[in-house]
Amino acid sequence: MIVASTHSYGEGAIYVDVHGDDEDTVWRATHRLAERVRNLPDVLNVVPTYSTAFIEFDLARTDRQSVQSSVDALISDDADHMLDALESRRFKIPVVYGGDRGEDLPALSRTLGMSEQDIAMAHSRRPLRIRCLAGPVGGPMMAGPDLQQPVPRQKSPRAFVKSGAVLLAGRQSFLKTMAGPGGWQIIGHTPLKLIDLTADPLVPWVPGDEIQFIPIEESEWTAWEGARPHAD
Amino acid sequence: MPTEMLEVLEAGHAAVQDLGRKRVSHLGVSANGAADEYSARMANVLVGNPQGAPLVEVLSSTFSFTTTTTTAVAVTGATADVTIDGRRAPGWASFRVTPGCVVTVREVRAGLRYYVAVGGTLQAARFLDSVAPDRALGFGTALAADDRVPFDARRARREIDSLLTSRLRPNYGDPWTLDACAGPEWDAFAHVRDDLLRADLVVHPQSNHVGTRLTGTLPSMAVPGELSSRGVAIGAVEITPSQELVLLHRGRSITAGYPVVLVVTAASLSMAGQLRPGDRVRFKHVTTDHATAAYRRQRALVDGLERSGSWTSL
């Protein structure tokens, strides 16, 4: 059972709140709805995340009331479609865990009461589903891995985290596609070049795809360095 | 069309800018673009360019240049002294410059950013069809002294009645009042929103294209539970865990997890792009109908100007 409702967000946007029985169904319904909303006239951007979709429209051409009633109509006409499965591809991402590549792993190991190796194993045991993309460009946010407790954020964010960093916070994983500030825990790095600003498509993955992390040794880094991620 | 040059003599903090990237949120890419969209559109219309043409955005510093051809120039945005070869020239108006004439903009008094448009298409590197700098991606064309920016010069300029242009300039005044509509946490923060609307806020120096930090005596605003990441609007006023307000600009990351009680209106957002560190700010609550009408009036003013002028050969 899925219940979705629309709400006002300033004069140039609305958002949809989705409720349902379990996280995975809610997430899928949110993204399915977002696909349909994207095709509405005068909608500029749709950002679906976990249980909300943010919808931005062209204020010169339409207004909140019209967009809200179009989206309400989509929701009531389309409840079945919202539960359809999403297509999924799988990307394999090699990771060097710990050491200089994952500087927060020792402290995290103490916090969680798990060995560094057990954290790396939990992270790479099964593929993680991409729930949404985040900035600055195409960074995949994934649900999992399942750990005993949520991973705390850094007390004060780092000003600079390298691209390729493999990060944990809360009950989520993230891959840093571009260097920049960050408050998540760094457990490793991938030698792959995740984003090429001249590539088309710019971002290799979409929400719904899966990422399988593969632990590699430091000695294997150069063999992978600069390679582009691709789906199986 | 021969390619002419805009030759930079003094750059200050200047970059080639446009209206940003419109439909890129699904890529996890920020919109970016002119922080004061109204002034950027106006500068382009005054010289006869399309409203979204690349132009120069300068952050409160001196910018000086010459061109290799006769062209129209317009300066809008923050109030500053504009001179051509040392003689005063008007802001918010189009004037003709000849090759080698030195155009200098300095002494920014009210507002933070000004826009310099030349008649023609400035050429700079593009990413997703826009020249707009994206600091998070390290993308953009920042200008330095001795840089030469190619442009395809227009051979005519638009003549616009100066009575008309005098009405275009917004009042940049400290203290500022910014219109804002209800955000998603408007109801959840019902107990503090009146205090928020009464608060005298001050612009913090650590502000940029991503956001303006605002400090002041704020009501205690306990955040109800942790919000998971969700799409966030340009103009959203976030309440951070350190009880600061951050007004998000066009460089904002597309997702965030902080509560948003107020969203600055599209019309007021252009004004917000002019806030200087130390300026005082208040928010005024308006309905979405009011805000929509205000934005359309602002756009109609620019569109009307675009249709009104007659063309003269340069």
Please sum up the structure shown:
The complex is a heterodimer of chains A (232) and B (314). Chain A is α+β, with helices and mostly antiparallel strands and 232 residues long.
List keywords for this structure.
heterodimer; A: 232 residues; alpha+beta; Gyrase A, domain 2; Cyclophilin; seven-stranded mixed β-barrel; four-stranded antiparallel sheet; B: 314 residues; 2 domains; seven-stranded mixed barrel; elongated
How are the SSEs ordered, and which strands pair?
The complex is a heterodimer of chains A (232) and B (314).
Chain A: E1 2-9, E2 13-20, H1 23-38, E3 43-48, E4 52-57, H2 64-77, E5 90-97, H3 105-112, H4 116-124, E6 128-134, E7 139-143, E8 158-161, E9 165-169, E10 172-175, E11 180-182, E12 185-189, E13 210-215, H5 221-224
Parallel strand pairs in A: 5-13
Antiparallel strand pairs in A: 1-2, 2-4, 3-4, 5-12, 6-7, 6-13, 7-10, 8-11, 9-10, 9-12
Chain B: E1 3-10, E2 14-17, H1 37-47, E3 55-59, E4 63-67, E5 71-84, E6 87-89, E7 94-97, E8 103-118, E9 120-122, E10 148-153, E11 156-159, H2 162-165, E12 176-182, H3 193-198, E13 201-203, E14 211-216, E15 230-231, E16 236-239, E17 245-248, E18 255-256, E19 260-264, H4 266-272, E20 280-285, H5 288-308, E21 310-313
Parallel strand pairs in B: 12-20
Antiparallel strand pairs in B: 1-4, 1-10, 2-3, 3-8, 4-8, 5-6, 5-7, 5-8, 9-10, 11-21, 12-19, 13-14, 13-20, 14-17, 15-18, 16-17, 16-19
